[in-house]
Design a protein that fits this description.
By secondary structure, the protein is an all-alpha fold. 84% of the residues lie in helices and 0% in strands. The protein starts with a helix and ends with a helix. It holds the Pfam family Bax1-I.
């Protein structure tokens, strides 16, 4: 055990990745991609089902129930990942992705498929560039991450105030531009953070795979939120 700890310290100091690192990084992006596919397929399926779409639109209880369930699942996965088995955590991530897809199905009622497709590719390009920047940069982004998280809290508060009190489309657009900047930065920050965490892994075991799963959840959330803010900016109502 002492030998492994010494080798890990040497790797961290010299910036050398373990043999497990490439496999774990692949898992991060494979899980994230699969989650996005589940979300997209679910959103499309619900949007094109008259019965399901009617239930989502007409019943606020169902819509808010989905949202609360999503928040609960993210909290459970993030808070109790050490206690959950890898299989359980993965299943919860799948359920969350599907619920998020059901919630996002409403965007098909507001924006055309062409606009959604265009914004998706814009998001994918932006996300990919910032994830690569976070992975390859030598700069320490940890201090930037703290500022971005505080900014995210501010955005959430501002969005709620606008939703219930101000109700201004201009204010919403301003918040959307700020949201894009925040999630562009968070994508780079999370990419670097995940890389640094997985560099410490000695093997592809359950513990290291759970770290990879949490990383894929973080990047998934960055992608989805970046997509939604860009959709508000570039989207055109039907």
């Amino acid at each position: 055990m002492e030998q492994q700890d010494l080798e890990r310290l040497i790797r961290e100091k010299e910036g050398i990745a373990s043999a497990a690192f490439p496999a774990l990084m692949r898992k991060v992006y494979v899980w994230m991609t699969l989650a996005l596919i589940i979300t997209g397929v679910t959103a499309y399926g619900v949007a094109h089902s008259e019965v399901l779409m009617q239930k989502v639109l007409e019943s606020r209880g169902i819509f808010w129930g989905f949202l609360l369930a999503e928040l609960g699942l993210v909290w459970i996965i993030s808070r109790f990942i050490d206690r959950l088995s890898l299989t359980t955590a993965t299943l919860l991530f799948i359920v969350y992705s599907a619920l998020n897809g059901a919630t996002l199905s409403v965007i098909f009622m507001v924006y055309s498929p062409a606009v959604i497709t265009k914004v998706f590719f814009i998001t994918a390009g932006t996300f990919g560039a910032m994830a690569a920047f976070g992975y390859f940069t030598k700069a320490d982004l940890s201090s930037l991450g703290k500022l971005l998280i505080m900014a995210l809290v501010g955005i959430i508060i501002a969005s709620l105030v606008n939703l219930f009190l101000i109700k201004s489309s201009t204010f919403d657009l301003i918040v959307s531009y700020i949201g894009v900047l925040v999630f562009v930065g968070l994508t780079a920050y999370d990419s670097q953070k995940i890389k640094n965490l997985l560099l410490e892994a000695d093997d592809v075991n359950e513990e290291s795979q759970k770290i990879a799963l949490i990383g894929s959840l973080a990047l998934y959330l960055d992608f989805i939120n970046l997509f939604l803010y860009l959709l508000k900016i570039f989207g055109r109502e039907k």
